[in-house]
Amino acid sequence: MTAKEGDAYDSPLFYLVMQYAHRADRDVVGMVSGSPDWDPPAAVRDGLREYADGEPADFQYAPSEGLRELREEIAARRNVDSDRVVVTNGAGEANYLAMARAMERDAGDEMVLTDPVYPYYPGKAQMLDAETVTVPVATDGSLNLDSMRAAVSEDTACVVVNTPNNPTGAVYDRESVAELAALAEANDALLLVDEVYDHFDFSGRFESALTLDSENVVVTSAYSKTMAITGFRVGYAVFPDALVEAAKTRHMLVNVATSRPAQAAVLRSLRETPPEYYEAARDRLRDRIDAFTDALDAAGASYTEPDGGFYVLARFDDFPGTLDNVKTLIDEAGVAGMPGEAFGEAYDDWIRFALCTPRADDAAARLADYFSASDD
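That's the Aspartate/methionine/tyrosine aminotransferase sequence above. Prediction below.
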């Protein structure tokens, strides 16, 4: 997962690939990072402008657990008590807090992850001295529940899943997530469900794990993708009552608080942004996915058709998804993706492309040209 395998503190492959693309001596379409390229809601900008004229007190520490009004707004939308909500520095910190709580319970020392997996999950697990158990997903990207049942045991501290999924684009149905919650309850483990891509569900099947109302479930999310504001670092975690106070303490000791202006802008956007903003983003991504996969057909590639999120995994004949081959694509095709080996073993011969660029069509054409020429 990192520059030196087994050392969680070296530069992640994401940064190595982006740096390599930046140094290339040709034009490169970047499809590595999941940073939306479209405008944030107008209310985000309005909220920041208004905040700039605030009183001196508005520029001081926010309450550590988050602005009260923001926590109440999140709670109302997620149908939970606001005392269960901790506003965090993005979904990354929210996931860290949940995984740390799982380890602090002394109810196991293993974390069960899917394969493929977002690389920061095993990185955090290693940082917390947890053992990792990876379970390959089914061929369609859905959860392999039989394998999950075999993997979860009394040694399991936490089961971590992400839906809609990065990198497969799978949307896990409520019944499958409920089965994982039952497994966690039976083994005194936590189930962490990262729902950061919940607004990018193309299937209509997504249901939040909060509908399960389980004392063993922690749900995390953020506004980074939803509002196209990855630089704001405003996320949150919803903890069971018994776990939230210790999570708040760890959050305070590690971060003190989350950015006050960013929280205020997000709050205003939640109150004022119409549903059409989010639907426009989904429509944009649907169009990009269709155009990109059409070009992958022309390149003779196999690929995933995402039900959610904005990533496509592609496999090219005799061109496995190694870091060396990703560099070759940068140098010779002018397209930067992520090596499949960064996400585990199940898709290690695939390459992940993030469709967060208006040049997705250009990238697709370059890939089609490159692999068509390779076949000649």
